């Protein structure tokens, strides 16, 4: 609690008298003195000379909550309507609005704000204060602005019950809902902190949430990151053990070879907070979720909202961004292919480049290294090529992919997406070699140090080993559940199962993280193709690569044997036992296998079930679904569909992640549709598929990419570490020097 010591009177006590009082109390009642001093220091350090400024629409409860917060802090409480405007004008706010009209009212209200000044107070703004830029700039100079975010439907209900018939901007041509929606842009412009306020949340609870949010805002030490391989004892001894979000975005891989995870886990949303997002758009949901996962000291809320708006704006062909479509029975498809490169990777990689550009120091150039099994490559190249020119001058991308291990259209994409700061290199090996090579390069301190000293260039990662890649994936899993609630398929709180075609374990891990944050997901179904190492592992607890060779399939994005993000999942269910994780993955690296302890396997099997699908069954599923529904699944989604059919119990809805558009795998799709003669030209294949008039239509971005001419070539190299390092150094010389 923050309320013990009287904050206001202390401002009137001189330093000498305060010292005398403190000395007498300390000598006579040392325990009481310690408690009082600790409480005062807590309150003073939370507020100090700053103001807490409550902002939100009319009916958000700013006045009531302001009084409660002020009581808890024992500080002055000022209501702008009652204590400033009506005192200045000597009349009621509603009468003033009636007398002078909407536009002049905003100006007069703003001028009153400009003349007002205080410190160490809780201030409740009027609903229209944020619409006056100069007035808000003046207030924000000495305050932390807290946005009480209440769903529009709740506000409308409250205003109706309060018989409010006049707010600023309301006229015969504008509905109340339109006005409330219009104002959101101004609230989003000014706030430092957002507090979600549901319909039935008591004012006392909201006041506590405000204090907790302000505490978080002022203390970035609350949100640090650790390596999955760090021991608890080692963390306290290492001076540099604490990393922040901006650090892990840039560094990618932890120095000990582990992966970064939040030390205190991810934030948890209440059921009411999730329900408040049911009516929200995809971008609004993303803003709310990511604000809670990224500390404002790393990226301020206003900047984060700007980045999210850029990432999920015109780049996506569907206004819903990640729509949920009913397939059949209890099965629903989460369509994750409406981004510019037609795969789920776009959700992270339209966002991460902007996060990265914001977080990196200006004094250094950065080369992003990427290993891809297909979809990541074009998504990374496209995302980083959309940065502003000044950022492209200091950030470049090198993408390594298995030369003969991706689909022809995927390769065409990666070649065509090459730009002045983005290049692709085909490697004469498989994805596992590419991924392992990237990890080894990152942990090669001599090579990284040489690049920094010689060329002023640091290395960074954009694979799913980078923590920032996972956060946008959490958003779409949460959003899919909320969409089912919004569509009336389930009430909030009813469980769903999720089935995901899985290779590197990042997508399914993000779904698990969504569950830890409060989304009611029951089972996670891990779907593999012929490279079914994960299926065997989940069933037996033995991760065994001995004697296994990677099999090329028509679902190349999951042609993976070493699943990097599995390490994060095991770290989580092992209660952050970094020593155990280190032991397991060192054994995998050195001996090619490991076995989970029995108790850990039991935990894993409470969450996960797994199955795999053959090539024959995959193509048969594509044909069957098209024949019965007119919908074409891509090869990865077909793998998930087959496994879901086998493992689901049909007692709740199941959301199948449709991770890519079928256009990317045209030859396999045409075989599945039983086309006898297939033209080898990728553009011709897409034109043939478009003649089917299937759902969904041919992907617009792929067509545009394949029509492009120009960058039609790429580098190819041997599967040799020294050759890869040579290519990296050469690129740095050509781009940055």
Describe what you observe in this structure:
The protein has 737 residues and is an alpha/beta fold. Among the domains are: 51-218, 3-Layer(aba) Sandwich (Rossmann fold), CATH 3.40.50.300; 324-339 and 469-561 and 607-708, Rossmann fold, CATH 3.40.50. It has 35 helices and 20 strands. The strands form 5 sheets. A 6-stranded mixed sheet has the order 8-9-19-14-15-18, sandwiched between helices. Strands 2-3-1-4-5 form a 5-stranded parallel sheet, sandwiched between helices. Strands 13-10-11-12-20 form a 5-stranded parallel sheet. Strand 14, helix 25 (506-516) and strand 15 form a beta-alpha-beta unit. The chain is globular and about 85 Å long. Its cofactor is pyridoxal 5'-phosphate. Residues 239-312 form the Threonine synthase N-terminal domain. It comes from Grallaria varia (variegated antpitta). InterPro entries: P-loop_NTPase, Ser/Thr_deHydtase_PyrdxlP-BS, Shikimate/glucono_kinase, Shikimate_kinase/TSH1, Thr_synth_N, Thr_synth_N_sf, Thr_synthase-like, TrpB-like_PALP_sf. The modification N6-(pyridoxal phosphate)lysine is found at residue 345.
List keywords for this structure.
single chain, 737 residues, alpha/beta, Rossmann fold, six-stranded mixed beta sheet, five-stranded parallel beta sheet, 20 strands, 13% strand, disordered N terminus
């Amino acid at each position: 609690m923050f309320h013990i010591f009287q904050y206001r009177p202390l401002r009137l006590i001189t330093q000498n008298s305060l010292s005398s009082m403190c000395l007498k109390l300390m000598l006579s009642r040392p325990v009481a003195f310690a408690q009082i001093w600790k409480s005062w220091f807590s309150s003073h350090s939370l507020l100090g000379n700053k103001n807490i400024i409550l902002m939100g629409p009319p009916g958000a409860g700013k006045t009531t909550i302001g009084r409660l917060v002020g009581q808890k802090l024992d500080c002055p409480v000022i209501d702008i309507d009652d204590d400033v405007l009506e005192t200045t004008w000597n009349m009621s706010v509603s009468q003033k609005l009636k007398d002078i009209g909407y536009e002049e009212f905003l100006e007069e209200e703003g001028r009153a704000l400009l003349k007002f000044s205080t410190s160490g107070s809780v201030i409740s703004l009027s609903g229209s204060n944020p619409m006056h830029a100069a007035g808000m700039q003046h207030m924000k100079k000495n305050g932390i602005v807290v946005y009480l975010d209440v769903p529009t439907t709740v506000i409308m209900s409250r205003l109706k019950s309060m018989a409010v018939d006049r707010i600023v901007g309301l006229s015969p041509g504008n509905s109340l809902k339109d006005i409330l929606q219009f104002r959101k842009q101004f609230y989003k412009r000014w706030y430092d902190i957002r507090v979600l306020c549901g319909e039935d949340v008591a004012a006392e609870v909201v006041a506590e949430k405000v204090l907790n949010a302000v505490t978080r805002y002022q203390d970035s030490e609350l949100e640090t990151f650790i390596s999955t391989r760090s021991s608890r004892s080692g963390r306290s001894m290492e001076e540099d053990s604490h990393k922040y979000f901006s650090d892990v975005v840039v560094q990618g891989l932890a120095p000990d070879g582990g992966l970064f995870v939040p030390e205190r886990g991810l934030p948890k949303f209440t059921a009411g907070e999730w329900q408040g997002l049911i009516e929200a758009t995809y971008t609004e949901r993303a803003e709310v979720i990511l604000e809670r996962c990224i500390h404002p000291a790393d990226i301020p809320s206003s900047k984060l909202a700007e980045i999210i708006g850029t990432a999920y704006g015109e780049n996506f062909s569907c206004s819903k961004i990640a729509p949920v479509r009913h397939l059949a029975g209890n099965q629903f498809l989460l369509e994750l292919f409406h981004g510019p490169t037609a795969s789920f990777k776009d959700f992270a990689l339209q966002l991460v480049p902007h996060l990265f550009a914001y977080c990196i120091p200006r004094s250094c150039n950065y080369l992003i290294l990427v290993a891809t099994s297909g979809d990541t490559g074009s998504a990374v190249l496209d995302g980083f090529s959309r940065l502003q020119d000044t950022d492209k001058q200091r950030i470049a991308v090198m993408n390594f992919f298995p030369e003969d291990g991706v689909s022809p259209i995927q390769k065409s994409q990666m070649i065509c997406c090459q730009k002045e700061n983005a290049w692709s290199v085909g490697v004469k090996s498989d994805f596992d070699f590419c991924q392992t090579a990237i990890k080894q390069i990152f942990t090669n301190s001599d090579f990284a140090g040489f690049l920094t000293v010689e060329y002023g260039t640091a290395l960074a990662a954009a694979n799913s080993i980078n923590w920032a890649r996972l956060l946008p994936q959490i958003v779409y899993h949460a959003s899919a559940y909320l969409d089912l609630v919004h569509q009336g398929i389930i009430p909030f709180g009813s469980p769903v199962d999720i089935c995901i075609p899985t290779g590197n374990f990042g997508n399914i891990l993000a779904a698990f993280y969504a569950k830890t944050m409060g989304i009611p997901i029951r089972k996670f179904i891990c779907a593999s193709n012929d490279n079914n190492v994960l299926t065997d592992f989940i069933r037996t607890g033995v991760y065994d690569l001995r004697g296994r060779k990677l099999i090329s399939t028509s679902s190349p994005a999951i042609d993976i044997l070493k699943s990097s993000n599995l390490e994060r999942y095991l770290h989580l269910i092992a209660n952050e036992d970094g020593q155990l994780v280190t032991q397991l993955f060192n054994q995998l690296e050195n001996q090619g296998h490991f076995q989970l302890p029995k108790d850990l396997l039991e935990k894993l099997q409470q969450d996960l079930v797994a199955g795999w699908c053959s090539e024959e069954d995959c193509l048969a599923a594509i044909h069957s679904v098209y024949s019965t529904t007119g919908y074409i699944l891509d090869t990865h989604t077909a793998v998930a569909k087959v496994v879901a059919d086998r493992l689901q119990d049909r007692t709740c809805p199941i959301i199948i992640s449709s991770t890519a558009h079928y256009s990317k795998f045209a030859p396999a799709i045409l075989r599945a549709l039983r086309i006898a003669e297939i033209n080898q030209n990728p553009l011709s294949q897409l034109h043939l598929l478009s003649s089917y008039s299937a759902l969904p239509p041919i992907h617009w971005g792929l067509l545009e990419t394949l029509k492009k001419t120009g960058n039609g070539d790429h580098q190819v190299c041997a599967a040799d570490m020294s050759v890869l390092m040579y290519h990296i150094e050469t690129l740095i010389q050509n781009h940055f020097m």
